[in-house]
Hints:
Blueprint: H1 15-30, H2 42-79, H3 90-100, H4 111-140, H5 149-184, H6 196-207, H7 216-222, H8 225-240, H9 251-281, H10 286-304, H11 319-330, H12 339-374, H13 381-403
Amino acid sequence: xxxxxxxxxxxxxxxxxxxxxxxxxxxxxxxxxxxxxxxxxxxxxxxxxxxxxxxxxxxxxxxxxxxxxxxxxxxxxxxxxxxxxxxxxxxxxxxxxxxxxxxxxxxxxxxxxxxxxxxxxxxxxxxxxxxxxxxxxxxxxxxxxxxxxxxxxxxxxxxxxxxxxxxxxxxxxxxxxxxxxxxxxxxxxxxxxxxxxxxxxxxxxxxxxxxxxxxxxxxxxxxxxxxxxxxxxxxxxxxxxxxxxxxxxxxxxxxxxxxxxxxxxxxxxxxxxxxxxxxxxxxxxxxxxxxxxxxxxxxxxxxxxxxxxxxxxxxxxxxxxxxxxxxxxxxxxxxxxxxxxxxxxxxxxxxxxxxxxxxxxxxxxxxxxxxxxxxxxxxxxxxxxxxxxxxxxxxxxxxxxxxxxx
Length: 406
């Protein structure tokens, strides 16, 4: 079990698995034992982290699908009279999906592209974070190996924005696949195609090229979730962990505080997640929504005899106005529909990803060293002892120089 002190990189799944992954690579190189062999390349760590995230995604995907459907069901009912299903809770949604959509298979609609997105997110985040962090370290001076926490979080946010820019189109396709059965249950087999190609063509026809980036602004806000989680964790640690144990708290307490912090952070940013899902599931372009909003405003003006402000006759132009409109028209409770499922998913995903990633990491390390031995590239015992002696001599010489009076 890894007993390192908890850092910001341990507190969230998804992109932050890559955040943790990067620091594992750095620590592996910085703290390498003189008796050790060649360090595992960054690509090996990337594969381990991405594999762990992908397996965790598969295990928790049914909850992700249920949460998405709870988030979008009201909006879909407004857009299409074909949507008759009403999920009252996470348990109710699970029961209905199992009974009406071919059992367990119904919980995995869209799993292939979503897992591909998870892997791509991890690799792209890793590359962007590596580049940005090294750039900041060089700007501060070559001897500095760590950035302040605020800069680490800022670099993480920028890296997350970069990776999400490239994977948001896949996220749009996944959301449509997750919602497809709600729209197509009463349609013919011909009209209910939910392949990636069919959905991509539909998005292009309905919204144009920019439609593939629906919900991107909400994704940017959601990349702040790990930062919020980190600050909540530090606050809880100061409140409940004795001062002498804060640098290395017990593993069980660390996991519990991290899970609580993530739950609170998820609740805080959940309305943005809901707005993102609705934007991606909607079949209407901004122009169509604007026309519909104007028509509603004209109807209200005609019926009441009072003019409606022009700003209210426009469709939401960003994620913040979308949230305000949902709260005004559907109530504050609508912003948190499906929250219990999201918190549950985050809790299991966080713990499962840590366990799986460690197991996969050990397997890849063993395979790497076994390959080196087969290729005779692993250092022999004689060369390892010689390297250890050289390192020891360097340490002794440095110590003598420090103790020598000036």
